[in-house]
Design goal:
This protein has 18 helices and 21 strands.
Length: 494
């Protein structure tokens, strides 16, 4: 018997088949391009995402030797797809990093204020919020606003394409338009802005079992009958669980490093205090029932690395293809992290705090090389991680000395050591690489009786591979650089 984790991400979809003990049996990945209709606008075509889901799942299912017990979903958050009553997307999915709705953010602020918005949703008022995206459609595309039956995210959209009714888990919906304390839609706020609460999918727990996929959906996905589909939740929450960070690890913060990089901590109550409001931390429902995540992230960590690779690593790509290696491994080989590189603020698509900030590089000289700039970019991403961990510490009022790192950016030994040296914390790597898919599979296993409890599941699956401790000499160097990095961050505004 096996469990299938479906990880629907920002740049691609991955289907991963696991044994009950968490060992990867098989995996399949399909990427898809972003759509950029205007500067600052970032979209995904829903049909491309559904096609990627079908291709990855069907290929894994075709090769599966053991019966698949259940399928759990991990999905990107902060996205919006207006859907017609005939289930047809009326517009592309608008992504989290899309900053078109700045006027709508100002309008929401003028009506209920940033503090009022935070006290309802548990998050900062920025262009990432789906409330601003809905109002943008209302103001700029009234034809689509009027024709919309449901405002979906990619999670409930994919489930609908499978053949299920429009349902979405608390974990996903709490990064859309959500009243965090009530665990429901904010009816009063929606009414204030002229949006019908019925235009959103019905809420269910992350452990909700949809049942078997209807025949048409099974055919598209290449799946046999009998597989149970479980709601799951946002990819970050699934990644945190897959990393082994849960309500039973109160001393640990997760570093989920992919297209975006987030520091996240599990709490038993919504973290909606003054420190969270001032620091623009975000709290939402976890995939483990009756718990929450407080997090702060950088929206362009992995995306910044991909940008550098696409723009400047032609020679490294050629070498990687010739030697059958990963291009990032080739790019990392000559890098030296000693605090002597340029200082780079990696805001290539803005920041969660302010979508108007942009990347900046300081300290370039005639001796600066491409490698110095790449190393400075990586150091900048890591300084952001330290800032985010320290913010979470202030929100939860406890020191967090252990960091569990997972994701594509957590596979480089050099970068893992750099994380320890800059943050001053012990950095652990989990035994699993596909943390978000594993988290979705664990949720599916818990919901269908494969595991008796979260503690049992995490304890039997997740082990620590390596631990990197901060080196005092380098921590002192980077501690001084960290002050300079933060003092000069304001120069990234334009």
């Amino acid at each position: 018997m096996s469990l299938l984790g479906l990880d629907i991400g920002t740049t691609g979809t991955k289907a991963v088949l696991f044994t009950e003990s968490g060992r990867i049996i098989d995996t399949e990945y399909q990427d898809y391009p972003h759509v950029y209709p205007h500067p600052g606008w970032v979209e995904l075509e829903p049909e491309r995402v559904w096609s990627a889901v079908c291709k990855t799942v069907s290929r894994v299912a075709e090769r599966a030797a053991a019966p698949i017990k259940a399928l759990g979903i991990s999905c990107l958050g902060d996205n919006l797809i207006p859907v017609a009553r005939d289930n047809r997307p009326l517009y592309n999915g608008i992504l989290a990093v899309d900053d078109r709705a700045t006027a709508e953010v100002a309008f929401i602020d003028s009506v209920i204020g940033r503090r009022g918005f935070f006290e309802i949703t548990g998050g900062p008022l920025t262009t990432t919020t789906n409330m601003s995206k809905v109002l943008w459609l209302k103001r700029n595309r009234p034809d689509i606003f009027a024709a919309t039956w449901k405002y979906m995210m990619f999670a409930d959209y994919v489930l609908m394409r499978m053949g299920f009714a429009p349902l979405i888990s608390y974990s996903m919906a709490s990064l859309s338009i959500f009243d965090l304390k009530r665990r429901n839609y904010p009816t009063e706020m929606l009414t204030e802005f002229g949006v019908d609460v019925r235009a959103f999918s019905e809420l269910v727990p992350p452990s909700y079992v949809f049942g078997e996929i209807p025949l048409e959906g099974r055919t598209a996905l290449g799946l046999p009958a009998g597989i149970q589909v479980v709601a799951g939740g946002i990819d970050l929450a699934c990644g945190v669980l897959g990393a082994g960070v849960s309500p039973v690890t109160p001393e640990m913060v997760a570093d989920v490093a992919g297209t975006m990089e987030h520091a996240a901590y599990v709490t038993s109550e919504p973290a909606m205090n003054e420190q969270a409001f001032i620091g623009n931390a975000l709290c939402f429902c976890n995939v483990v029932d009756d718990s929450y995540l407080v997090f702060k992230g950088l929206p362009t960590a992995g995306a910044a690395m991909r940008w550098f690779s696409d723009q400047f690593a032609g020679e490294e790509k050629t070498r990687a293809e010739r030697e059958g290696r990963n291009v990032y491994d080739v790019m990392f080989e000559p890098l030296v992290f000693d605090g002597r590189n340029v200082i780079m603020h990696p805001y290539l698509a803005g920041h969660y705090d302010d979508s108007s900030v942009r990347a900046s590089i300081q300290g370039i000289t005639l001796a600066t090389t491409k490698d110095n700039i790449l190393a400075g970019l990586i150091e900048g991403i890591t300084h952001e991680l330290r800032n985010n961990i320290e913010l979470i510490e202030s929100v939860v009022s406890r020191p967090l000395r252990r960091v569990r790192a997972v994701g594509g950016l957590a596979r480089s030994a050099k970068w893992l050591q750099l994380r320890a040296d800059i943050t001053g914390r012990n950095i652990e790597t989990a035994s699993i690489t596909e943390a978000s898919a594993l988290g979705a599979a664990i949720v599916a296993g818990l919901a269908t009786g494969v595991y008796s409890s979260t503690e049992q599941a995490v304890g039997s699956i997740v082990t620590v591979n390596e631990c990197y401790s901060p080196r005092q000499e380098f921590f002192e160097i980077y501690n001084r650089q960290h002050e300079i990095y933060n003092e000069s961050a304001s120069s990234s505004h334009y």
